[in-house]
Amino acid sequence: MGNDQQNPLLEVTFEFALAIMQFSEELEGLKKYVIAKQLLRSGTAIGALAREAQMAESRADFIHKLKIAQKEAEETEYWLLLCKHSTNYPNTDERLTNNLVSIKKLLSRIISTAIQNENSSKKMTSRMSSTH
Q: What is the pTM of this model?
């Protein structure tokens, strides 16, 4: 993983993706292919988008990519809840659900901070241009 360990979001989303891969394999073993595929796609997309956001072209692009990661986290939670509440599916490991909750909170904090920084930057730019 290299430098990802210095970035808590990249670290936790990578570990979460590995756990999702393992759970998806368990679902496939039970011939639950559709849910396994959906869960694998959305659960691994969170980390991929977080990683992609690190190379964003602007703060707005960074925020946009993390908001998409947030949506993928919501979708992942939906698939996990379906598994949890269905009698024909294996119950999800609570650690998986708890890690997802932590990721959602972390994404929310990062997005809020980025939006605040963007708004502060816009205000400062506006003040500077009005004084000239």
A: 0.86
